[in-house]
Each structure stands twice: as structure tokens, then as C-alpha cells.
Amino acid sequence: MSASPRKTDIGPPHYEQFLPPVIKKNYGKWLYHENPRPGVLVHVAESGDKLYSVRAATPRILNVKSIRLFADLADKYCGGHLRFTSRNNVEFLLTDESKIDALIQELHALGYPVGGTGNAISAIVHTQGWVHCHSAATDASGVVKSLMDELYPHFVNMHLPAKLRIAFACCLNMCGAVHCSDIAILGVHTRVPDVDHVNLPKMCELPTLIASCPTGAIRPATVNGAQSIHIEEHLCMYCGNCFTVCPAVKINNAKTDGLSIWVGGKVSNARTEPKFSKLVIPFLPNTPPRWPETVEAVKHLVEVYAANARKYERMSEWVERIGWPRFFKLTGLPFTKYHIDDFTHAGETYKRSAQLKH
Amino acid sequence: MSASPRKTDIGPPHYEQFLPPVIKKNYGKWLYHENPRPGVLVHVAESGDKLYSVRAATPRILNVKSIRLFADLADKYCGGHLRFTSRNNVEFLLTDESKIDALIQELHALGYPVGGTGNAISAIVHTQGWVHCHSAATDASGVVKSLMDELYPHFVNMHLPAKLRIAFACCLNMCGAVHCSDIAILGVHTRVPDVDHVNLPKMCELPTLIASCPTGAIRPATVNGAQSIHIEEHLCMYCGNCFTVCPAVKINNAKTDGLSIWVGGKVSNARTEPKFSKLVIPFLPNTPPRWPETVEAVKHLVEVYAANARKYERMSEWVERIGWPRFFKLTGLPFTKYHIDDFTHAGETYKRSAQLKH
Amino acid sequence: MSEKKRETPLLDELEKGPWPSFVTELKKSAETPVIQDLLGQLERSYEEHLGHWKHGGIVGVMGYGGGVIGRYSDLPEEFPNIAHFHTMRVNQPAGWFYTSDALRKIADIWEARGSGITNMHGSTGDIILLGTTTDQLEPIFSELTNIGFDLGGSGSDMRTPSACCGPARCEWACYDTLAAVYDFTQTYQDELHRPAFPYKYKLKFAGCPNDCVASVARADMSFIGTWKDEIQMDADQVRQYAASGRIDIQKDVCERCPTQCMSWDGNNLAIDNGECVKCMHCINVMPKALRPGKERGCTILIGSKAPIMGGALLSSVFVPFIEMEPPYEDIKELINAIWDLWGEHGKNRERVGEFIQRVGLGNFLEQIGLEPVPEMIAYPRTNPYIFFGEELHEKQA
Amino acid sequence: MSEKKRETPLLDELEKGPWPSFVTELKKSAETPVIQDLLGQLERSYEEHLGHWKHGGIVGVMGYGGGVIGRYSDLPEEFPNIAHFHTMRVNQPAGWFYTSDALRKIADIWEARGSGITNMHGSTGDIILLGTTTDQLEPIFSELTNIGFDLGGSGSDMRTPSACCGPARCEWACYDTLAAVYDFTQTYQDELHRPAFPYKYKLKFAGCPNDCVASVARADMSFIGTWKDEIQMDADQVRQYAASGRIDIQKDVCERCPTQCMSWDGNNLAIDNGECVKCMHCINVMPKALRPGKERGCTILIGSKAPIMGGALLSSVFVPFIEMEPPYEDIKELINAIWDLWGEHGKNRERVGEFIQRVGLGNFLEQIGLEPVPEMIAYPRTNPYIFFGEELHEKQA
Ligand code: SRM
Ligand code: SRM
Ligand code: SRM
Ligand code: SRM
Ligand code: SF4
Ligand code: SF4
Ligand code: SF4
Ligand code: SF4
Ligand code: SF4
Ligand code: SF4
Ligand code: SF4
Ligand code: SF4
């Protein structure tokens, strides 16, 4: 192949070539949809045509061998057409309703369960972790796998009050959009980074490094003769941004890295406006291979939510109705000073009224 | 008198000596109240006793001669008992319902109209202005008098959807607590202060002066030999705090001082939480003796509110229901870049959702 | 100059109209030279659109640092009788209750030794005696103390506390606001008269969440009455309100309840009191039928202020619920702890509300020894910038 | 070392349980030395609770600055086969639609020249090819372009835009998200491949306010479909939903409407469309009965991002409503104006959302020549610190 002249800036292939005939024909002319069973959607067009989507879970890390399996299934059931979702599930696009059961059976047999639609827990948006990233406070795929093994029943059923979106990110860069999820798990560093004064001068630009600190904790300093930096411990909140711009400032710490849990974020505009996730568990220990403390904590949050929220009430909407004091009571989670914001807009998060439940 | 030994730290007289018998008897045992007519409240005690309060307007600036008139009325109608309110009205405390009409007639005759109760516009909380303060961008009592002459019908009636609280302050120090009123009028300086370099060194402490600037616009500078300051024009938003700590930095400016209008603040916890007033008219000219532009603007706001708000809906609650875009449409007020916050928490005021009326 | 009456054509405009006129009040003493000059300078301000006051040296009474605001005309030659025109702040009686007798005594003193002009009252709550000369301050002070009055606050001290009429004239008072404001004012006389704080510190006492003294907006410490148990209801009275037709209980009451915790079936009103946030609305609308509960106390909030310098603040929850029983020991311990901490670490002209934001509410609570509770916040932090400090892993260990 | 299979007792634990296992995915290529070392290093991380990757020099393909993330093991001696383990980001097709054929071609290339491990997909939307060596980058790139694929973004460039399935598979799409994402991606190929911005710039296209690509939280520019006119209603279908008993129209629909602009009398559903804020809830609950209106377009919001460094932001309204018609000239003019301004005045690693807050939304709009409208704000300023500048009085004059 590589004989042919070098091509650049061609951009992605045009999507049209990937659309199945039923979509080409009814493009933009869909009338409504139904969700007959978990993981199955049917979209009905003005023309009366029907498109069946069967959604299956993936670990997101996919071996090309598995991709070929999906391709084979697509050929067998969907005239070769499939897609992936914004939450990393795979969707098979059928026109023949009668083939759905067989497809689902094959998928389950291959270990890719069908579900994630409607008021369920869909796949966890997540990140690289120890598999590929340098700033990970914990692994991503392992935590996600451990969680979804436990939350599995909520993926293959649709019994929750509303959609429950879970996200995971392995460091404060938050590549998984944990900042706006119903439940978010965030890897956190909790110690001031160690500075490698020997390599720093070679590896990093001081101005960029100093500018990288959100709290201005980094000061220039001369360490055994060489230009380096000093970190004001009391100003450091371990975000790791210095490490992002300078590998000689080591943020990873086997003993003190851990996980934190956040709830009540939301992206859609449905009913209530989009909002950020809020801290509910500041720190949990980093315990591979199964992170039992984290799994328990998330499971507990899901259960309390499921037991108390009203129909069509997202996690955030439920908490706002009952109020945060009640949330901490119901979940039994301790409220600490760590929960109280102390960054730039902290004052905006204080309760500035006497409207309280006593 | 002044022969007697010098007393200090005695504090205010004990309130009990000022309470009328009916209050002493029913203290803390009031059952309910009614508001039979504008300016008249009747409080009924568990004992069945009734206390009638007749509320009259004052200009707040009171001549001792007027205070004696009030004292005489209190003797004649109330066994010598009266009080003032947190909004500077005077309240006469009667037990004999039959005397109310006569009292009201005398008060009107003396020029102190009765009203301000219930869903009305009560007295305007205000400040010193040119009568006594040094940093006033405009006069207080004159603007208030001009406004209340026009809003008078809303003081002597109770036809508004809810209480409408108006406040006035003559500079950004906001002694009148305009920051949380349904409608607020705020005197504003709009030019960088003039520095009197000759007197500054004698009159002011440089560190205090420099520290006084919320935006850090004040820099030390040597002006014709002497230590003085330089003000970064683009950083100055004319708050006048430098003048408060240093009279040599002159903030008052006959040509450019003016007034601004704010709406939608609230103090009570009723229904909705307390909130700040928001800017709706950035600048109106300073036009004594009657400030027609300001009077017109406020009157217009009251009318639009009265015509559109629902029963028991404070200004802020009405605006929040219809939304700010609709508010600017209904009032016809121009929306400008001045309305968009650009101070510390500005980003918190941006609309961060797609929930819009189109 | 102060002989002949001054022309005040602009001010005269403000004697017209139905609202009581401050110009008329001034002119009631038109015969005095002081008022002549005051009118003259004010007319001049109206002509020029410019104030003519300046602050000069601190003035006051012996042993006090607060209570007097020094004022000087910047046109002393033209208006010699107001060259000095200081304000005295006199601590009002709790709830602004007076007898005619007390008012006359104040009037006499002020007419004899001052301008005869007052503000009833200043917006912190004091009786404002507007305009006198330095030499009169001491005599006025001793005459005031002789009739039982004292000065209020000014400068960086505890400011004159104020309170709503509370149990004296209101059925909704959840604690005795008058007893409280009197007690705290007396307890802190030294802090009130002798400025020793980084900045001013204001206390306001409101008997219920209607907050009729605007404490949540204008007090460094806001005491807002509230209750814990069920709203007291008289079911017949509810029905009478419904019958009266003056209010629509479903629309005007239930649907306006912030927590939607009320339901009305046309005959019975049910309140899910556990969900009630004590906003007062339903009680306000039906005072004959509903009343605050019986387990009463107050919510203490902290830190409100005007914009200077970091921006205006509303007070935020500090103690969600506490009973208000004299001698208020627990509360005074808290206040002393706050004053010690803020007094030591607060910057010059930094209000306590700004101080708390600077050091962080969590640290602030830790320093004064108060447990953080979720009632203190609207919602937990959304940013992950958590200062764990060493404790975290000590705790783990 | 990479000869004999590595023991991975900890990772093996993650092959248990019903959820598909990434470990199993890795082991599907257990025969390759690369995966042996990857498993080995990962097992090591699980033992030590520590990652073993470092970033080193920038790597990439000729003429591009983005699209490849350089990764190096910090234990190269022990795991030589992953000493270099770079990620290639491949720009996904709009809406993530594929044919089996296209997927097989990618699989073949990646198996031959890379680890054979992918992410379908990365959270920006790219196909992530996880792990190869520097010398393979060019050959892989040319083979990818030969099958019609190109690299995505990384570094301070425009990042790979993404879109929801939109009109291809959704009845609620208010504009053609696939056409739009394709057009903008092609228009800005240079900005996508050659980092020249202060920081990254992400575009996400959602067909309606449900925002199925999380654009409001994760895109510097969020295109959210919406409509202007009435919600389309099929009254019979509404009644059938009511009859079905599956939803209570009063409780589940009307009472959950954020503006309370719907009313249901048991037979007819009325919508006061003027008050509707297009939240989608009622439509979501009754897809057979309700649909977005016919006058469709999108709301453009700007500035969302993760916490680094000033704190996370949601996008804020930039253009309240605009029709989405190719070639999208007006929008492209706006984008170019933003990139010019931000490109010139933005600080290194300052996202556009942070830039706007620093310079002030008002000034930002003025600079790019857009009129401020109240739709852009939640509420007007509450602080009086207004920078009037000279214009004010020029205007007056
Ligand atoms: C396939 C997908 C779009 C894509 O191009 O990939 C999609 C597809 C649909 N979404 Fe979505 N949404 C998809 C991600 C999202 C996201 C983004 C995310 O999760 O990161 C959101 C925002 C979530 C949030 O707010 O945090 C999202 C918020 C919604 C909502 C609003 C839910 C709410 O009440 O807030 C609806 C409406 C509903 O569910 O009733 C919706 C509805 C739908 C419908 C019913 C639209 C339709 O008529 O076809 C589709 C089936 C939903 C289902 O799964 O039951 N979709 N949807 C995404 C599937 C992800 C997955 O594999 O699970
Ligand atoms: C006399 C006074 C307290 C005092 O000790 O001086 C007072 C007295 C009463 N207030 Fe008040 N309020 C007084 C200032 C306030 C303030 C403070 C202020 O205006 O600066 C507020 C907060 C205003 C705000 O939120 O901005 C205030 C918010 C209320 C409310 C809540 C109104 C609302 O819906 O938000 C009520 C309840 C009601 O009106 O139904 C209330 C109710 C009452 C009642 C009915 C209480 C009672 O049962 O006696 C009293 C008669 C009200 C009336 O005027 O109709 N009072 N009230 C103050 C009279 C001021 C005046 O002269 O007009
Ligand atoms: C007299 C009074 C206004 C009135 O006409 O009622 C007043 C008058 C002054 N205030 Fe005030 N403030 C008065 C109540 C207030 C209030 C309202 C309140 O206390 O409820 C506030 C807003 C609430 C607060 O405390 O934040 C208030 C916020 C200020 C500020 C801004 C403080 C801040 O932190 O933002 C200043 C500036 C300063 O302290 O330097 C200030 C400063 C001043 C000064 C001393 C001007 C100065 O820079 O020296 C004024 C003296 C005027 C004069 O010539 O007499 N005054 N001041 C009020 C006191 C009368 C009394 O004791 O009863
Ligand atoms: C691969 C991916 C995570 C994943 O597993 O899916 C990823 C991986 C990295 N991200 Fe990310 N980000 C990825 C999507 C995101 C997202 C989500 C999104 O785009 O929707 C975000 C949050 C939204 C946003 O842009 O703010 C995100 C916010 C960051 C940040 C913080 C940026 C900020 O302004 O706060 C950084 C730090 C930085 O840029 O230096 C970052 C930096 C990184 C770096 C390059 C680490 C670094 O410091 O160099 C990671 C490389 C990992 C690796 O070894 O491959 N990544 N990153 C995602 C890109 C795949 C793709 O192209 O499809
Ligand atoms: S979240 Fe942090 S550790 Fe995880 S992939 Fe993104 S940058 Fe790497
Ligand atoms: S970890 Fe974050 S806070 Fe700490 S020094 Fe580095 S950049 Fe600053
Ligand atoms: S608001 Fe300003 S000008 Fe008016 S009295 Fe207070 S400090 Fe003086
Ligand atoms: S007026 Fe305010 S902003 Fe301007 S220099 Fe003085 S203190 Fe600073
Ligand atoms: S605050 Fe409450 S108790 Fe005090 S007067 Fe107002 S309504 Fe009555
Ligand atoms: S007091 Fe307020 S919150 Fe409580 S029931 Fe009445 S209206 Fe509802
Ligand atoms: S964002 Fe709207 S249009 Fe796009 S898939 Fe989701 S629901 Fe459909
Ligand atoms: S779309 Fe939302 S706002 Fe509009 S009517 Fe339906 S529920 Fe109400």
C-alpha cells in the first residue's frame, strides 16, 4: 500500500458511506422511538420503516480480534452496519426484528452483554489509567470493570428512576467527564510532588512550570547551585498540573494516591440545567485489583438513590429536592471540612439563607 | 446636670420601661394580626387584648420640633407610647380603636401620611447624601423625597402583588443596604479620582491607601519629588474606597457622578432565599432638585412589575419566573456590556445551559 | 453672613408634594445660624451637583473611640456655623420603643447643644444626632448618660446591634429579640465603644425568617428566629380563609411553598413538616390559621456586608439551630472565639465574612472549634482542589 | 524475558465477573511480546499501586503536530517491547458509524504495525490505537490515509470534533449533526493537525438539548440543537399515553416542566410555548406524542472544560439561536474571530472559557463584534464595580 503518494489532511471518511440503506432512506425523517427491552431501541420513520438498534457493552479497550468479531456479527445480522455510542457501547443496526434474539444470544455468549438503554446505568465513561497514562493516580479499566461487575444488573435492566451516568477519571485532568456525572470516581493525588532537582533544569522550562500552578505554590529556587523550584507545601493541593508540564516534578505516589467520589452532576437540559458533580467521599484507598471500598461506596450510593428518588428524577434532582443535609443522613456519609469548597468561588457555595430543615 | 459624676458604658436604657402596658401584659403572647387598612395593624393577644399600630411616614431627617409633635400625639392617643420601625416610619401604639381615625387625621394634617403596611411600598431606606456625607455621588434625601412624592399612592394603598422594598445609597459603600432590595437606587462615581499630590503625603498612609483598592489599581509613585501614588486608569472602577481612607484622592465629580438602578434583591426567607439586587440601569444623570430621569425610571419599573407579577410575587420572584431576557423586553431597557459582570465571580453569572425561550 | 436668610430656590422645590419633606424639617429651625448655613451649603451642592463635606481628624468623647463621626465643611468661610458638623450616634432602645418623655429629653439636649436635626434612625439603628461642634461632645454625652442613654458604635468596633420588635409586637417571634439585643449590647459595651477590631462587626436580631431587620444582608452576625417542630395549625381558620375567597389555598399557599410540602384537598391542609424549610410564606398568608412551631430558637448566620472591598455578601449559616436562652453562654463563647481569631489574623478593613472566605470556612470552623455540618453549605465543593494536609493519612493510619 | 508468559495473578482477578474484561481483551494477543510486556508492566502497577509510563519527546507524523501521544515505559529494561508505546488518535467517522469492512481494514493495519489494542473510542471521540513504536508511525499513517482515514487532534490544536448520531438515528435532531461535524472537521484540517493555539479547542455537536455528546461540559464550543416555534403535538397519542397508565401526565410531565408552562385537564394537554425553555423533558417522556417544533436550529455555547487550571467550566450561551445551514458561513466567521483574538491574547494553556472570564464577556463580545444579549447571562451583575470607561460620557454628550 504505502507505495502510493503520501496523503495528508484528508479528514475522516464521509459518514454517508457507512450508513445502512434504511438510514439513508429515512435520514432526518424519524418519527418516534421505543425501547421495547433493555438494550434494544426501535426507531420508526415517517415512511413506516423500522430500525432496530441492539446495544452491547464493551470494555472500551478492544482487541482487533474482538473488533473483527463485531464485524462478523454486523455482516451476519446487519448487512455489515454497526456503530459505537458516545459512551463506548457498540450498537448493531438491524431491520429484521426476528433476528434480534439470535444476535443478543451471540453477544452474551461472546461476553458482550446487551443493555444500557433507558433508565439504566450505561457504560462508564473512563480514561487510560495505568494502561497508558503517566499521571494516573489509579487504574481506570480495573476500577471500571470492578464497578460494572457489581452494577451489572442495572445495565441489563431499566429499573432506575432515571438514567444514571457514571464516569471515571484517573487524575484531576478529568479526561472522563467526571465533572458532570450522576456519580463520578476520580483518582486523586494527596501529597506534594517530589521534585527531581537533578533533572528538572534539563527537562523543564521554569516559567511554564511556575505558571502551571493554579495556586501559585511554585517558587523559583536555587538548589545545590542549579536553578530549580521550591513548592510551598501549604499552597499545594496536589492537582498535578506541574507534572503535566514537567516530568521532573513527580506527582505519583504509591502510598498516598487514592480515589474520591462525586455525585449530582448532569449534562442534559432535561428539566433542570446542566450541573457539576459535588464531592461526597474525599478519599478512598487505592486497592487493586478490585477496589472493594470504592465498589461498595458506589453501590451504596446507587441503592440509596434508587430507593428514594422519584420517577424521572436524576441523582442531582433528587439531592436538590431533599437537600444535602438529608443526603448525608440517608447515605450515612461523614461530612468533613474537605467537603467545603475553599477555591476561588468558595463563598458562592455557602448556604446564605435561613431556609433549613431542622 | 453635667455636675453629676461621669457615666460611661451604661448602654441603652432597658426597653421594658418604654413598653406600653398592653405589651407588657401580652409580651410574647400575641396570637395573630390583621391589617384592616393601610398603615393600621391590629395585633390580637391570646388574652383577647388588642394592640393597634398606626404607621406614619417620616422624612427620617426629623427636627426635634417634629419629634415633640410625635411625643404630643403619643400622649394624646397612646398613653405616651410610640416606636419607630426598621424602615424609619413612626408607629403609634393604641389600645382604643375609636381613636384611630382622629390620630390619622392629625398625622395627615401635620404632613406625615399613614400607610406602608402590607403589600405596599414602605419608606425608602436611605443614607446621608449631601446633607452630611463626604463621599456622596448625589443627594439621598432629595432623591428619596422626589421618588416618594410619585410613589405616594403605593404607600397609602396596598394594591401591589407583594411588599416592594426600595433602598437608596449615595455611594458604593451602600449604607442603605441597596444590595438586597426589590428596587435600589445607587449613587455612582464614574471617573478615576483626582489625586491631590501636594496634600497626599501629609494626609495619608501609603500602604493603607494602596491596600484599599479592590482591583489593585493604585501603585506607589514619586510625583515632583514627593512619595505619592499613580492610579492605573484601566483598572479603576471608581468605587471610591481609596477616598474613604485618603481624602487627598478626590472621587467626587460634579460632571460625571450619577445614579444607577438595581432590581430583584430580597432579604426575607419567604418562599425564595434572600438575594442580591441586579443592575438594570447602569447610569442616569445627576439632576437635582427632582431627578426626573430617576423618578421616571423607578416609576416605570414599579408599573411593569405591578402589571405583570402574580399575587405574593416579589420583584425578584417575578423576574426569575419570566427570565431576564423577558424582563428587558417588557421594560424596554437596553441591555449593554455594563450589565455583564466582570468582577471576581463573573463566570458564575453566565448562562450555562441551553434552557432558553426563543 | 449667617444673619440674613439664605435663598434656597432649588431646595424649596422639595417642599412640594405629598411626601414629608426633609427641607421643611430643616426650615423648622430656619432661625438658627447653623441651619441657615446647612441650607446654604446644601443649596450650593444642589447647584453644583457636588457635596461639600470632608472628614478630618477623629473626634469623640473621652475614653471612647466610637460613636462620633467627624464632619467639616470644605467651605468654612462661607458657612462658618457648620465648619464643624459632627454626628453623634446614640444607641437606640431595643426595638425602637420610646416614651414621649424620653424623646422630649433627647430633643431638649440636642436643641440646646446641637443642630436640632436628627435621623430617626440611622440605618444601623442608632439615633443620629446630626451636627454639632467638638466642644459640645462631652457635655452632650454627660447629659445623655444622665437620662440613661449612651453612644453607639462607629469605626472598627462592634456596631450598635439592632432587633425587630419581636415578642413585644409580633406573634411570630421565635425568641425574645429585645432581651437578646439588650443583653449582647450590654455584655459588649467595651467592644462597642473602643474600636479594637480589624473592621466593623454588626449584630442584628430578627425574630423569625421574615427577617424584618435585614440581618441576613446587613449584619456580620445574623440571629434569625426559627423552629424545629410542626407548624401550629388551626384547621377551622384554614377553612375560613378558604371560604373568605381572599386567598386560593392551592395556588397562593401550596404552590408557593418552596419545598412543595403542603397539600390541600379543599377541606384539609396537610403539611409534611419534615420537609418544611421554615420560610414563613404559608404563615404569612394565613396568620390566623398557622403559627411557627413550639420548639423555638434561632439560626445564626455570619458574614454579610456591603461591597467594599471583595464584593457584597449575604450571611451564611453558622449555627443551624440553637435555643436563645439568657445568658447565651454558648453563643458568647463562639463570638469571643471568632473575635480572637479574626482579631489576630484579619487584615485591616477585612470584614469577618471576607476573612472566612480568605482562610476557608473549613479552617475557620476548625480554629474556633465548631464541627462542620452540611447545613452550612448550599452544596459540597465541585472542584477537586482539596487541601488534605497531613491529617488525611494519619487518619488512615 | 518476553519469551515465557508472564504471571498476572492480580490482573487475572479482573477476568472474572459478568462485565466484559479488558484483561481478556489484552490476553487475546497474549502470544505477542508487546502484550506480554504490557501485561507485565500493568501487573507490576497493580502490585505497586504505581503507574510506569512517562512522557518523553514529542513524536508524530511528518508535517503534523498532533494526533500522536508519545509514551515510554519507565522500566524499559524489564519491558523492552513497550519501551516506546505511543498512541495514535484516528479521527472517527461522524456519529461513529462504520461498516464491517472499514473496521477490518483498520484492524489489519493495527495488528500488523501496532499492539492490536484499541479504544473504541477515546473520550474526545477518536479511534484510539494504543501502543506502537516511533518508526511505525509513518507507515501506519500512510496505510490509514490509503483506506480514507486521517489522524485526530492532540496538543494545542483544534481537537477532533464529535457529534451525536443525530438525524441518522434520532427523531429529535434539530439540525444535521453529521453534516455539520463533517463540514467543520474538513474546513479546519490545518487547525486540527498543526497545533497553533494557546491550548486545545474542542467542538461537539448535539442535535437537541438532551446533549448526548456532553457538549455543554466537554467542548470549548457546544452546538446544541433547539427550536423556536411550538412543540409538535399529536393529541390522540397524548391521550393514549394517559390511558396506558404508564405515565401520569400531571405528575410526570406537567409538574416536572421547569417553567410550569403545561396544563393537563385529563383530556387535553396545553403548552404555553412562549414560556417553554426547550428542555426536552415532556418530549422525552412522550416521544410518540410530542416532537420539537419545525423552526429548528441550534444554540451555540462556549467555553466548557475540565478543572485545569482555573476550575471546571460549563459552556455558556454565545449565540442563543442560529440556523444550521451549510456552508455555515456566519458561524465560521465567528470561530475565526475567536481564534484570532484568543490566539493573540490568550495565555499559554488558557482555554477560551478561561480567557473570556479573564478579559470579561462584555469586552470579548465587543472585540469579536457580537452584540450582548440577556440570553447570555443567568442574571445581570450584582456588584457595582462597573468599568464605564470614557464611552459613557461621550454617549451622554
Ligand atoms: C446513542 C446515544 C447518542 C450517540 O450518538 O451515541 C444516545 C441516544 C439516545 N439518547 Fe441520549 N444518547 C447517548 C448519550 C447521552 C448522553 C451523554 C453521556 O451520557 O455522556 C446524555 C447526557 C447525560 C447527562 O445528562 O448526564 C444523554 C441524555 C439523554 C436524555 C436526557 C436524560 C435526562 O433525563 O437527563 C435523553 C432523554 C431520555 O432518556 O428520556 C436521551 C435520549 C436518547 C434517545 C432516546 C434519543 C432517541 O430518540 O434516539 C437515544 C436512546 C437513549 C437510550 O439509551 O435509551 N439521552 N444521552 C448515546 C448513548 C450512550 C450510551 O451508550 O449509553
Ligand atoms: C415593623 C417592622 C419590624 C420592626 O421591628 O420595625 C415589620 C413588621 C412586620 N413585618 Fe416585616 N417589618 C418590618 C420590616 C421588614 C423588612 C426589613 C426591610 O424592609 O428592610 C423585611 C424584609 C424585606 C425584604 O425581604 O426585602 C420584612 C419582611 C416581612 C415579610 C416577608 C415579605 C415577603 O413576602 O418577602 C413579612 C410577611 C408578610 O408581609 O406577609 C413581614 C411581616 C411583618 C408583620 C406582619 C409581622 C407581624 O405579624 O407583626 C409586621 C407588619 C408588616 C407590615 O408592615 O405589613 N415582614 N419586614 C418593619 C416595618 C418596616 C416599615 O416601616 O415598613
Ligand atoms: C449614618 C449611616 C447612613 C445613614 O444615613 O443611616 C452611615 C454612614 C456612613 N457610613 Fe455606613 N452608615 C450607616 C450604615 C451602614 C450600613 C447599613 C447597616 O449598618 O445596616 C452599611 C451596610 C452594611 C455593612 O455594614 O456592610 C454601611 C456600610 C458602610 C461601608 C461599607 C462597609 C463594607 O464593608 O462594605 C462604609 C465604608 C467604611 O466602612 O469605610 C461605610 C462608611 C460610612 C461613613 C462613616 C463614611 C466614611 O467613609 O467615613 C458614613 C458617615 C456618614 C456621615 O457623614 O455621617 N458604611 N453603613 C449609617 C449608620 C447610622 C447608624 O449608626 O445607625
Ligand atoms: C485519551 C484520552 C482519555 C481516554 O482514555 O479517552 C485523554 C488522554 C489524555 N489527556 Fe485528556 N484525554 C482525553 C479526553 C479528554 C477530555 C474529554 C473530552 O475531550 O470530551 C477532557 C475533558 C474536557 C476538556 O477538554 O476539558 C480532557 C482533559 C484533559 C486535560 C485538562 C484540560 C483542561 O483544560 O482542564 C489534560 C491536561 C492537559 O491538557 O495538559 C489532558 C491531558 C491528557 C493527556 C495527554 C495527559 C498529558 O498530560 O499529556 C492524556 C494522554 C493519555 C495517554 O497516555 O494516552 N486531558 N481530556 C481522551 C482523548 C481520546 C480521544 O482523542 O478521543
Ligand atoms: S485523567 Fe489524567 S491520568 Fe487519566 S488519562 Fe487523563 S490525563 Fe491521564
Ligand atoms: S501539584 Fe498542583 S498545586 Fe501542587 S505544586 Fe503542582 S501545580 Fe501546584
Ligand atoms: S452611602 Fe456612601 S455617601 Fe452615602 S452615607 Fe454611606 S458612605 Fe456616605
Ligand atoms: S476608586 Fe476604587 S478602583 Fe479606583 S483607584 Fe480608588 S479604590 Fe481603586
Ligand atoms: S422578623 Fe419575624 S418576628 Fe420579627 S417582626 Fe418580623 S415577622 Fe415579626
Ligand atoms: S413555612 Fe414555607 S416551607 Fe414551610 S410549609 Fe410553609 S411555605 Fe412550606
Ligand atoms: S442529542 Fe438529541 S438528537 Fe442527538 S441523539 Fe441525543 S436526543 Fe437525539
Ligand atoms: S420542553 Fe421542557 S420546558 Fe418545554 S414544555 Fe416541555 S417540559 Fe416544559
Global Rg of chain C: 25 Å
Distance between the termini of chain A: 73 Å
Q: Tell me the strand percentage band of chain A.
A: 15-25%
Task: Write down the overall geometry of chain A.
Answer: globular
Estimate the strand proportion of chain C: 15-25%
Structural class of chain A: alpha+beta
Multimeric status of the protein? heterotetramer
Spell out the key features of this protein.
heterotetramer, A: 358 residues, alpha+beta, 5-stranded antiparallel sheet, 4-stranded mixed sheet, 14 strands, C: 397 residues, 4-stranded antiparallel sheet, 15% strand, binds siroheme
Topology:
The complex is a heterotetramer, with 2 copies of chain A (358 residues) and 2 copies of chain C (397 residues).
Chain A: H1 21-26, E1 30-37, E2 40-45, E3 50-56, E4 61-63, H2 64-78, E5 81-84, E6 90-94, H3 100-110, H4 141-155, E7 166-169, E8 183-188, E9 194-195, H5 200-203, H6 206-211, E10 218-223, E11 226-231, H7 241-245, E12 249-250, E13 258-263, E14 278-285, H8 292-308, H9 315-322, H10 324-331
Parallel strand pairs in A: 7-8
Antiparallel strand pairs in A: 1-2, 2-3, 3-6, 5-6, 8-13, 9-12, 10-11, 13-14
Helix pairs in contact in A: 4-8
Chain C: H1 9-13, H2 22-27, H3 33-48, E1 53-54, E2 68-69, E3 72-73, E4 86-90, E5 97-99, H4 100-113, E6 117-120, E7 127-132, H5 134-146, E8 162-163, H6 177-187, H7 189-193, E9 203-206, H8 215-218, E10 221-227, E11 232-233, H9 235-244, H10 249-253, E12 262-264, E13 269-271, H11 281-285, E14 290-291, E15 296-302, E16 316-322, H12 329-345, H13 352-359, H14 361-368, H15 391-396
Parallel strand pairs in C: 8-9, 9-10
Antiparallel strand pairs in C: 1-3, 2-4, 4-7, 6-7, 10-15, 11-14, 12-13, 15-16
The complex binds siroheme (4 copies) and iron/sulfur cluster (8 copies).
Summarize the structure in words.
Helix content of chain A is 27%, strand content 20%. Chain A has 358 residues and is of the alpha+beta class. The N and C termini of chain A lie far apart (73 Å). Helices cover 34% and strands 15% of the residues of chain C. In chain C, α4 (100-113) packs antiparallel against α5 (134-146) and α13 (352-359) crosses α14 (361-368). Chains in contact: A-B, A-C, A-D, B-C, B-D, C-D. The interface between B and C is large, with 120 and 126 residues. One iron/sulfur cluster binds next to α11 of chain D.
